[in-house]
Design brief:
This protein is an alpha+beta fold. The protein has 3 domains: 2-121, Leucine-rich Repeat Variant, CATH 1.25.10; 157-247, Leucine-rich Repeat Variant (Alpha Horseshoe); 255-430, no CATH class. Helix content is 48%, strand content 11%. It has a 4-stranded mixed β-sheet with strand order 1-4-3-2. This is HEAT repeat domain-containing protein. Pfam families: HEAT_2. It comes from Methanococcoides seepicolus.
């Protein structure tokens, strides 16, 4: 009798599953009931089911936009989170404002999904982001995210970011995000930033100098040299230090990328992938030892929430393509052991000063690395810093909180003031 019941249950499940979690090509795209079912399926605790629901809704496109916007207010956090991701992939401008409002959601996973979605929607809706960033009635956190997303849109965003840097009344609260976005855009922002050096406002000039130092374009050296005679001591000092950064080829924003990060349709997919990266990093530990400082030039490695393995290399340490290939082969071998081909690895260069950044002979596990405004990498142990429940970096013994959304739910490119780099979970660093 028990056997019969089990067989019957299995038969029912086999029949129901294709009807409920159908592939997009079998769906009635105009059927609201179908859309509602798929939205409910996004909360199912099965990665393939929730991912298929998102893919199907993306294929449905425009008819699904309004129901998905409404779903951003659903009590179920998985539905809010995956609705945001889906709206980002559909790319309809109607979703921009609701997604910006979602930045204030009580759930961190939902907030991050909103950030990712805004980055996915595309530069054709740049005007909406600019309007939001300039609106003092909007929450500060959502305005900061709007500015950071602008940095993803390249040259088209430069005039708007320059205006935010030089004319916005909330300069002091938004300048870090504006600088970060301009530095991310790079060369197209250099000439407009050089023009800001003529400003009468020393704070505006200071931010322009820092952004030029972040970009590292040598054509900024001559204009910065003129600032060495500025009446403001702060401006003079910043000009001097950032000229040195550029002349010394400070490369903390330089990187070399291997492999390819897969497309994630749900946060569960991303977490599943992240777990695989943890396995790869963990099984590579013994072979990586010889590359770690002081014997080698690697000061950190670990899993990045962006979906790649991050390897931090000391700038100007003589690391060449051959050595990077060696390191990549280590990770690639262990990736293939668990069925992953073309594992993504990002090599990032940073300046690290012995005796200043690391105080212990052997620092292992759960370290946090940040790049400060001077371009130096600082490594904190778990006894020196931690991330609070809101994802902010807290320096122990420091009353202020470094408000960086830099947890292991971090979205790359989505940091402010300091760049959190991949020392997540199983990262290692040695003096």
């Amino acid at each position: 009798m028990i056997i019969k019941v089990l067989i019957l249950t299995t038969a029912v499940l086999i029949f129901v599953t294709p009807m409920t979690y159908a592939d997009a090509k079998n769906l009635d795209f105009e059927n609201k009931t179908t859309i509602e079912i798929l939205i409910e399926d996004m909360a199912v605790q099965n990665v393939s089911v929730s991912s298929n629901a998102v893919r199907s809704l993306v294929d449905i496109g425009e008819p699904a936009v309004e129901p998905l916007i409404q779903a951003l207010e659903n009590n179920n956090l998985d539905i809010r989170e995956n609705s945001a991701i889906t709206l980002g992939k559909i790319g309809d401008k109607r979703a921009v404002e609701p997604l910006l409002n979602l930045i204030d959601d009580e759930c961190q996973e939902v907030r991050i999904a909103a950030e990712i979605a805004l980055g996915d929607i595309g530069e054709e809706h740049i005007d909406l982001l600019v309007t939001h960033a300039n609106n003092p009635d909007k929450s500060l956190s959502s305005r900061k995210i709007a500015i950071i997303v602008l940095g993803e849109y390249g040259e088209k965003a430069v005039p708007h970011l320059i205006e935010l840097l030089s004319e916005n009344d909330d300069y002091f609260t938004l300048s870090g995000e504006v600088r970060y976005s301009l530095a991310k855009i790079g060369e197209p922002a250099v000439d407009p930033l050089i023009k800001l050096l003529e400003s009468d406002d020393p704070d505006v000039k200071s931010s322009a100098i820092k952004a030029l130092g972040d970009i590292g374009d040598e054509c900024a050296i001559e204009p910065l040299s003129k600032a060495l005679n500025d009446e403001s001591e702060l401006v003079r000092n910043l000009a001097k230090s950032n000229i040195e950064r550029i002349e010394n080829h400070n490369a903390h924003f330089s990187y070399v990328s291997y492999g390819k990060v897969p497309t994630f349709y749900t946060e569960d997919e991303r977490q599943e992938w992240f777990s695989n990266l943890e396995i790869i990093v963990g099984t590579s530990e013994t072979e990586m030892d010889k590359y770690i400082r002081p014997e080698g030039s690697v000061y950190s490695y670990g899993c990045s929430y962006d979906g790649h393995i991050s390897v931090g290399i000391v700038a100007d340490s003589g690391v060449n393509e051959s050595l990077m290939n060696e390191i990549y082969d280590i990770f690639d071998q262990h990736a293939q052991e668990i069925g992953i081909e073309n594992v993504p690895v990002l090599f990032e260069y940073g300046d690290i000063e012995a005796g200043e950044a690391i105080d212990e002979e052997d620092i292992v596990d759960r370290n946090i690395a940040v790049i400060n405004d001077d371009g130096n990498v600082i490594i904190y142990t778990e006894d020196e810093a931690y991330f609070d429940k809101e994802g902010n970096l807290v320096i122990i013994g420091n009353e202020t909180t470094q408000e960086e959304n830099g947890t292991n739910k971090q979205t790359p490119g989505f940091t402010s003031i300091m760049l959190i780099i991949g020392l997540l979970l199983s990262a290692r660093s040695r003096k």
